[in-house]
Amino acid sequence: MLSLVVLISGGGSNLRALLEATSESAFPARVVAVGADNEAEGLGHAEAWSIPSFTVVPSTFESREAWGEELLEQILRWSPDLVVCAGFMRILPPNVVRALSPRLINTHPALLPAFPGAHAVRDALAAGVDTTGVTVHVIDEGVDTGPVIVQRAVPVHPGDTEHELHERIKTVERELLVAAVRDIAEQTVDLEELAAR
Protein backbone atom coordinates (compact mmCIF):
# COMPACT_ATOMS: atom_id res chain seq x y z
CA MET A 1 0.00 0.00 0.00
CA LEU A 2 1.54 3.27 -1.17
CA SER A 3 1.42 6.05 1.45
CA LEU A 4 0.91 9.61 0.21
CA VAL A 5 1.48 13.07 1.60
CA VAL A 6 -0.43 15.57 -0.53
CA LEU A 7 0.56 19.26 -0.68
CA ILE A 8 -2.02 21.92 -1.61
CA SER A 9 -2.38 25.69 -1.81
CA GLY A 10 -6.03 26.24 -2.72
CA GLY A 11 -9.41 24.55 -2.97
CA GLY A 12 -8.00 21.05 -3.13
CA SER A 13 -10.05 19.55 -5.97
CA ASN A 14 -7.15 17.23 -6.89
CA LEU A 15 -6.80 16.27 -3.23
CA ARG A 16 -10.51 15.48 -3.08
CA ALA A 17 -10.21 13.26 -6.17
CA LEU A 18 -7.35 11.36 -4.51
CA LEU A 19 -9.26 11.02 -1.24
CA GLU A 20 -12.30 9.68 -3.08
CA ALA A 21 -10.13 7.19 -5.00
CA THR A 22 -8.19 6.05 -1.94
CA SER A 23 -11.43 5.51 -0.03
CA GLU A 24 -12.07 2.52 -2.30
CA SER A 25 -10.67 -0.57 -0.60
CA ALA A 26 -9.17 -1.87 -3.85
CA PHE A 27 -7.18 1.30 -4.53
CA PRO A 28 -3.48 0.61 -3.80
CA ALA A 29 -2.64 3.90 -2.04
CA ARG A 30 -3.69 5.89 1.03
CA VAL A 31 -3.32 9.56 1.95
CA VAL A 32 -1.60 9.71 5.34
CA ALA A 33 -1.32 13.51 5.67
CA VAL A 34 -2.08 16.76 3.85
CA GLY A 35 0.19 19.80 3.93
CA ALA A 36 -0.41 23.39 2.84
CA ASP A 37 1.49 26.67 2.53
CA ASN A 38 -1.49 28.70 3.85
CA GLU A 39 -4.84 28.15 5.54
CA ALA A 40 -6.07 26.66 2.28
CA GLU A 41 -9.75 25.94 1.73
CA GLY A 42 -8.80 22.43 0.61
CA LEU A 43 -7.71 21.52 4.14
CA GLY A 44 -11.44 21.05 4.74
CA HIS A 45 -11.27 17.91 2.60
CA ALA A 46 -8.58 16.48 4.88
CA GLU A 47 -10.76 17.25 7.88
CA ALA A 48 -13.82 15.64 6.23
CA TRP A 49 -11.83 12.43 5.63
CA SER A 50 -10.18 12.61 9.11
CA ILE A 51 -6.72 12.93 7.55
CA PRO A 52 -4.08 14.77 9.64
CA SER A 53 -2.87 18.05 8.17
CA PHE A 54 -0.11 20.60 8.66
CA THR A 55 0.48 24.15 7.46
CA VAL A 56 3.90 25.72 6.91
CA VAL A 57 3.56 29.39 5.91
CA PRO A 58 6.59 30.79 4.02
CA SER A 59 6.20 34.35 5.33
CA THR A 60 6.85 33.18 8.89
CA PHE A 61 10.41 32.08 8.02
CA GLU A 62 13.59 34.11 7.49
CA SER A 63 14.34 32.43 4.17
CA ARG A 64 12.91 30.11 1.56
CA GLU A 65 15.45 27.50 2.62
CA ALA A 66 14.35 27.68 6.27
CA TRP A 67 10.72 27.30 5.17
CA GLY A 68 11.75 24.32 3.05
CA GLU A 69 13.51 22.67 5.97
CA GLU A 70 10.42 22.91 8.15
CA LEU A 71 8.17 21.72 5.32
CA LEU A 72 10.47 18.75 4.72
CA GLU A 73 10.50 17.90 8.42
CA GLN A 74 6.69 17.92 8.50
CA ILE A 75 6.52 15.70 5.39
CA LEU A 76 9.12 13.20 6.61
CA ARG A 77 7.28 12.82 9.91
CA TRP A 78 4.76 10.72 7.94
CA SER A 79 7.39 8.59 6.11
CA PRO A 80 5.48 8.78 2.81
CA ASP A 81 6.25 6.58 -0.18
CA LEU A 82 5.19 9.43 -2.48
CA VAL A 83 4.67 13.19 -2.12
CA VAL A 84 2.04 14.66 -4.44
CA CYS A 85 1.95 18.39 -5.20
CA ALA A 86 -1.73 18.80 -6.07
CA GLY A 87 -2.26 22.47 -6.80
CA PHE A 88 0.69 23.43 -4.58
CA MET A 89 1.66 26.84 -5.94
CA ARG A 90 5.19 27.15 -4.55
CA ILE A 91 8.47 26.18 -6.14
CA LEU A 92 10.11 23.83 -3.67
CA PRO A 93 13.63 24.75 -2.52
CA PRO A 94 16.45 22.52 -3.85
CA ASN A 95 17.03 20.87 -0.46
CA VAL A 96 13.42 19.63 -0.41
CA VAL A 97 13.57 18.37 -4.00
CA ARG A 98 16.87 16.57 -3.40
CA ALA A 99 15.47 14.86 -0.30
CA LEU A 100 12.26 13.64 -1.93
CA SER A 101 12.72 13.33 -5.71
CA PRO A 102 11.95 11.25 -7.72
CA ARG A 103 9.17 10.20 -5.33
CA LEU A 104 7.80 13.72 -5.66
CA ILE A 105 5.23 14.43 -8.37
CA ASN A 106 3.22 17.36 -9.67
CA THR A 107 0.33 18.06 -12.02
CA HIS A 108 0.65 20.82 -14.61
CA PRO A 109 -2.14 22.25 -16.80
CA ALA A 110 -0.31 21.98 -20.14
CA LEU A 111 1.49 19.46 -22.30
CA LEU A 112 5.02 20.02 -21.04
CA PRO A 113 7.53 21.16 -22.17
CA ALA A 114 5.00 23.62 -23.65
CA PHE A 115 3.83 26.40 -21.34
CA PRO A 116 5.75 25.79 -18.11
CA GLY A 117 5.25 28.07 -15.12
CA ALA A 118 2.32 29.48 -13.19
CA HIS A 119 0.25 30.82 -16.11
CA ALA A 120 0.09 27.81 -18.40
CA VAL A 121 -3.59 28.14 -19.32
CA ARG A 122 -3.31 31.86 -20.08
CA ASP A 123 -0.12 31.24 -22.06
CA ALA A 124 -1.77 28.50 -24.14
CA LEU A 125 -4.67 30.82 -25.02
CA ALA A 126 -2.29 33.67 -25.85
CA ALA A 127 -0.33 31.37 -28.16
CA GLY A 128 -3.49 30.47 -30.08
CA VAL A 129 -3.00 26.70 -29.87
CA ASP A 130 -5.95 24.42 -30.60
CA THR A 131 -4.81 21.76 -28.11
CA THR A 132 -3.31 21.93 -24.64
CA GLY A 133 -3.60 19.41 -21.85
CA VAL A 134 -2.36 17.99 -18.58
CA THR A 135 1.00 16.57 -17.51
CA VAL A 136 1.83 14.58 -14.40
CA HIS A 137 5.58 14.72 -13.89
CA VAL A 138 8.40 14.10 -11.45
CA ILE A 139 9.57 17.29 -9.76
CA ASP A 140 13.24 18.08 -10.27
CA GLU A 141 15.17 21.25 -9.44
CA GLY A 142 13.92 23.10 -12.53
CA VAL A 143 10.49 24.67 -13.07
CA ASP A 144 8.24 22.03 -14.68
CA THR A 145 11.27 20.31 -16.24
CA GLY A 146 11.14 16.88 -14.54
CA PRO A 147 10.49 13.57 -16.32
CA VAL A 148 6.96 13.16 -17.68
CA ILE A 149 4.93 10.31 -16.16
CA VAL A 150 1.76 10.73 -18.24
CA GLN A 151 0.06 13.36 -20.40
CA ARG A 152 -3.40 13.83 -21.88
CA ALA A 153 -4.54 16.37 -24.45
CA VAL A 154 -7.43 18.80 -23.89
CA PRO A 155 -8.91 20.70 -26.86
CA VAL A 156 -9.04 24.49 -26.84
CA HIS A 157 -12.47 25.61 -28.07
CA PRO A 158 -12.97 28.82 -30.09
CA GLY A 159 -13.80 31.67 -27.73
CA ASP A 160 -12.62 29.83 -24.60
CA THR A 161 -11.98 32.05 -21.60
CA GLU A 162 -9.11 31.18 -19.29
CA HIS A 163 -11.62 30.03 -16.68
CA GLU A 164 -13.57 27.80 -19.09
CA LEU A 165 -10.45 26.14 -20.42
CA HIS A 166 -8.97 25.69 -16.96
CA GLU A 167 -12.14 24.02 -15.69
CA ARG A 168 -12.02 21.49 -18.55
CA ILE A 169 -8.33 20.90 -17.86
CA LYS A 170 -9.00 20.37 -14.13
CA THR A 171 -11.49 17.58 -14.89
CA VAL A 172 -8.83 15.72 -16.87
CA GLU A 173 -6.14 16.61 -14.31
CA ARG A 174 -8.05 14.89 -11.50
CA GLU A 175 -8.52 11.69 -13.53
CA LEU A 176 -4.91 11.66 -14.69
CA LEU A 177 -3.47 12.22 -11.21
CA VAL A 178 -5.49 9.36 -9.75
CA ALA A 179 -4.40 7.09 -12.63
CA ALA A 180 -0.73 8.08 -12.20
CA VAL A 181 -0.80 7.37 -8.46
CA ARG A 182 -2.39 3.97 -9.15
CA ASP A 183 0.28 3.17 -11.75
CA ILE A 184 3.06 4.15 -9.35
CA ALA A 185 1.49 2.08 -6.56
CA GLU A 186 1.10 -0.93 -8.85
CA GLN A 187 4.68 -0.42 -10.09
CA THR A 188 3.69 -0.13 -13.75
CA VAL A 189 5.48 3.23 -13.54
CA ASP A 190 8.99 3.19 -12.05
CA LEU A 191 9.92 6.68 -10.86
CA GLU A 192 13.56 5.76 -10.23
CA GLU A 193 13.90 4.49 -13.78
CA LEU A 194 12.18 7.60 -15.21
CA ALA A 195 14.53 9.89 -13.27
CA ALA A 196 17.60 7.96 -14.42
CA ARG A 197 16.91 8.47 -18.13
From TrEMBL:
Record carries keyword tRNA-binding: no
Enzyme Commission number(s): 2.1.2.2
Record field: transmembrane: none
Segments forming domain Formyl transferase N-terminal: 4-181
UniProt keyword annotation of Transferase present: yes
Pathway in which the depicted protein is active: Purine metabolism; IMP biosynthesis via de novo pathway; N(2)-formyl-N(1)-(5-phospho-D-ribosyl)glycinamide from N(1)-(5-phospho-D-ribosyl)glycinamide (10-formyl THF route): step 1/1
Domain of life where this protein originates: Bacteria
Pfam family, one: Formyl_trans_N
Broad EC category: transferase
Positions marked as site (Raises pKa of active site His): 144
Catalytic site: 108
Cellular component terms (Gene Ontology): cytosol
UniProt-annotated binding residues for N(1)-(5-phospho-beta-D-ribosyl)glycinamide: 12-14
Catalysed transformations (reactions): N(1)-(5-phospho-beta-D-ribosyl)glycinamide + (6R)-10-formyltetrahydrofolate = N(2)-formyl-N(1)-(5-phospho-beta-D-ribosyl)glycinamide + (6S)-5,6,7,8-tetrahydrofolate + H(+)
GO biological process: 'de novo' IMP biosynthetic process
A single MF term (Gene Ontology): phosphoribosylglycinamide formyltransferase activity
HAMAP family on file: PurN
Family: Belongs to the GART family.
Function, as annotated: Catalyzes the transfer of a formyl group from 10-formyltetrahydrofolate to 5-phospho-ribosyl-glycinamide (GAR), producing 5-phospho-ribosyl-N-formylglycinamide (FGAR) and tetrahydrofolate.
Protein name (Swiss-Prot/TrEMBL): Phosphoribosylglycinamide formyltransferase
Species in which this protein is naturally found: Cnuibacter physcomitrellae
Lineage start: Bacteria, Bacillati, Actinomycetota, Actinomycetes, Micrococcales
